[in-house]
UniProtKB/TrEMBL annotation:
Keyword Transcription regulation in record: yes
InterPro entries, sorted: AraC_XylS_family_regulators, Homeodomain-like_sf, HTH_AraC, HTH_AraC-typ_CS, Tscrpt_reg_AraC-type_HTH
Protein name listed in UniProt: AraC family transcriptional regulator
Sample GO molecular function, one term: sequence-specific DNA binding
Pfam families referenced in this protein's UniProt entry, alphabetically: HTH_18
Signal peptide annotation: none
Organism superkingdom: Bacteria
Record's keyword terms, sorted: DNA-binding, Transcription, Transcription regulation
Family annotation (SMART domains): HTH_ARAC
Record keyword Nucleotide-binding present: no
Length: 319
């Protein structure tokens, strides 16, 4: 199973084989930096939280101070939204100047390979998605759209839909490794689809596949999702079992079950947790570990979001 990278460390301290783009995978002389490395350089700080998946890029949460620097070309598209107080944004590239405001409900897009000078006067709380061009190309192909157009530069551009999607991914930067990784993969697919529809040079309407999974494909998907917490329940593995692209698998699974793969797995884990709390004396910390949560705190927070109660309180009430 390919596990996501969770880090609270300075990106340059990561081993070379865990970076977003390995040095040996970059074309000679391309001069592009991995997005997380370039962001750390210009923001002069480390991300508060970050989760990276080699197949779908990374999501990072930052809080940084004033910025007056040139952002050099990066290997990934950077899509960001904001969670804190408003700040004026100014982007300069040659004679072109774009001005916007960092605030809730807007997005900023830095297409891969582009460079500009940024001027931001004060503190910014921001969530960033580092999206590989390969992901955009794959989703465009799976949706039978052909070669995707280049993403447009955006500076504080109003787009509540994209902002909400990105914020939802930020809510699960830690927790149950398999469950939250599956959710981030699904959200990344949705974000890429949204970018193609609303922020590409020629906007497209992407038509979802019609119809659900075959009985055999649905059985295989359910068996994988029901397996032990350390099994590979990535979107790629689920789609491969069904013989479908990830784009079409998500839609077909929901047509068949009424739930997305992530929501189905979340319900399954909740049922397992409730059974263990109700029928056994296993400590909450051990239940959290058995279900694949990074910590007892992460498990308790997830359980409370779904039930409105802490695990211990729920256990006392139902016994």
């Amino acid at each position: 199973m390919v596990k996501p990278i969770l880090c609270n460390a300075w990106p340059q301290d990561l081993p070379a084989d865990r970076a977003l783009v390995r040095r040996e995978d970059r074309a000679p002389g391309d001069g592009l930096r991995p997005a997380d490395v370039e962001m750390a350089r210009v923001l002069k700080t480390a991300p508060l939280r970050m989760a990276a998946d080699p197949s779908s890029g990374a999501i990072a949460q930052w809080q940084h101070g004033a910025l007056h620097d040139i952002v050099e070309p990066m290997t990934h598209h950077v899509i960001m939204t904001y969670t804190g107080a408003m700040q004026r944004l100014e982007r300069r590239a040659g004679r072109s100047v774009a001005v916007g405001t960092a605030r809730i409900g807007v997005v900023t897009i830095i297409p891969a390979g582009t460079s500009a000078r940024w001027d931001i006067a004060g503190t910014v709380d921001v969530l960033q998605l580092y999206l590989p061009q390969a992901t955009l190309a794959r989703i465009a192909g799976e949706a039978e759209r052909g070669t995707p157009s280049e993403l447009l530069e955006r500076t504080g551009y109003p787009d509540p839909t994209t902002a909400r999607l990105l914020l939802s991914a930020g809510d699960v930067l830690d927790g149950s490794e398999a469950l939250d990784a599956l959710f981030r993969q699904q959200v990344t697919e949705l974000l890429a689809t949204r970018l193609l529809a609303a922020h590409a040079g020629s906007q497209a309407v992407l038509q979802p596949a019609l119809g659900g999974l075959s009985p055999t494909a649905l059985r295989r998907a359910i068996e994988r999702l029901r397996s032990d917490h350390d099994a590979d329940v990535s979107l790629a593995a689920l789609a491969a079992d069904a013989g479908l692209s990830r784009f079409h698998f998500c839609r077909a699974f929901k047509d068949s079950t009424g739930l997305s793969p992530h929501v189905w797995l979340r319900q399954r884990r909740l049922e397992q947790a409730m059974a263990m709390l109700r029928d056994t004396d296993v400590p909450v910390a051990q239940i959290a570990a058995a279900l694949g949560y990074a910590s007892q705190t992460a498990f308790a927070a997830a359980f409370r979001r779904l039930t409105g109660e802490a695990p211990r309180d729920w256990r006392r009430r139902v016994r």
